[in-house]
Amino acid sequence: MSPTARDGVNGLEGIVAAETVLSEVDGEAGRLVIRGRSLDELSDWTFEDVISLLWSGFFETLPDDLTAALGVARSEVFEEVAGLDRRLAERAPIEVMRALTARLSDGDDLATALRLVAAPAVFTAAAIRARVGEPPIHPDPERGHASDILRMTRGVPGSSAEVKALDAYLVTVADHGLNASTFAARVTASTLAGLTSAVLSGISALKGPLHGGAPGPVIEMLDGVGEAAQARAWLEGALDRGDRLMGFGHRVYKVRDPRADALKRAVRALTHASNTPPARLQLAEAVETAALEILRERKPDRSLQTNVELYTALILEALAFPASAFTCVFAMGRVAGWVAHAREQVQGGRLIRPQSRYVGPVPRAAA
Ligand code: ACO
């Protein structure tokens, strides 16, 4: 058999590799459940509320005031920003954030877990600022996490609508079954390497454009299309070149990703609250309509639908994050899930150690 054969083992499609109480992705119904709550039920929750939901039972106790505890953790990890020298600052924000996160010590306790949630937020803000020659801003432990992320990134507080939009984003992406980065985190956790190691595995897997690296290229796609009337021609050209359309297709969802609608609602609310013209949203909707049409025509036997990344790009752009840092903002939310999965893996699982099938040459003596 050829080593590149696309059988069920290739990409582990359809393989159940863990049991979890954390989230369920129903790809046929287009439904996401986070610990017994539908995504819709979480629409008014803060990110800290969702951390409490995900982490409950995975640590001896959780702090009564998780917002305050996370604020303290942001201040603690800020010390590591001293390691952001000129050479590191030239690298992509995700690499900066990963390098600084790697400076945190490993552990399995709640304090380590809180520092790991704080890390992508504090280090990404510092990385974004360093790229434009601005000094880092010390966290304000009194603020909620989303509010402080905006302040640390821009130097001025965000509006309440912006804080709400960022909370909605972080909540929406906090956990999502056994996606590639969560699987990577669980594999590392299963060796008992510790939470920091597990989160670093998650960040590294998230970085790729087939996973959390897609929203940056979504912006390039929207900029390339330019105006709605050009959408079809531009997208056809991209597919003719052999490119994939970023923000479309998913391993599990065969219908529309429910997170796309949650984020679209959040973008709409933010656009409305800030009185900005909805031109970008309208362009994205035109691109979405054209892309779905073309994908249906070109791949009639696949059900390629909108995934979370299309409207992720829009909401993060509206919040003024640079496209180069979109994946880092994704990590700010998903880290809550990585930590919970890592704890669940350690508490109930065994070492993850699958097998490969050898398809290489046999030694001459055995032939
Ligand atoms: N554009 C064009 N064609 C696509 C796309 C797309 N976005 N997605 C899948 N296809 C096609 C593939 O070319 C392939 O065609 P073929 O069978 O004729 O060779 C077929 O659909 C199946 O592709 P696979 O890569 O096997 O499907 P998989 O389940 O692994 O894909 C993935 C999932 C990686 C997300 C894919 O849909 C993709 O590359 N999308 C674009 C990148 C993207 O949006 N990533 C973010 C995903 S969401 C997240 O991770 C948070």
Can you tell me about this structure?
The structure is a single chain. With 367 residues, the protein is mostly helical. It has two domains: 40-211 and 322-348, Citrate Synthase, domain 1 (Orthogonal Bundle); 215-318, Cytochrome P450-Terp, domain 2 (Cytochrome p450-Terp, domain 2). Helix content is 53%, strand content 3%. The protein is built from 15 helices and three strands. It has helices at residues 47-55, 66-78, 86-89, 93-101, 110-131, 145-154, 160-172, 180-190, 195-206, 215-225, 231-240, 258-273, 279-298, 308-318, 326-348; strands spanning 23-26, 31-34, 37-38. It has a three-stranded antiparallel sheet, with no helix packed on it. The longest helix is centred in the last third of the chain and has 23 residues, at 326-348. The protein starts with 22 loop residues before the first strand and ends in a 19-residue tail after the last helix. The model is unreliable at 1-5 (pLDDT under 50). It binds acetyl coenzyme *A. Acetyl coenzyme *A binds next to α14.
Regions with little confidence, pLDDT below 50 for 5+ residues: 1-5
Please give the CATH class of the largest domain: Mainly Alpha
Number of helices: 15
Which whole number gives the mean pLDDT? Answer: 94
Which strand order does the major sheet show? 1-2-3
- Corresponding CATH architecture of the largest domain: Orthogonal Bundle
CATH superfamily of the largest domain: Citrate Synthase, domain 1
- Rg over C-alpha atoms, rounded to the nearest angstrom: 21 Å
Query: What is the SS-derived class?
Result: mainly alpha
Kindly identify the CATH topology of the largest domain: Citrate Synthase, domain 1
Helix content: 40-55%
Shape: globular
For the secondary structure, the number of strands is: 3
- End-to-end distance, in Å? 17 Å
Report the order of strands and helices. EEEHHHHHHHHHHHHHHH
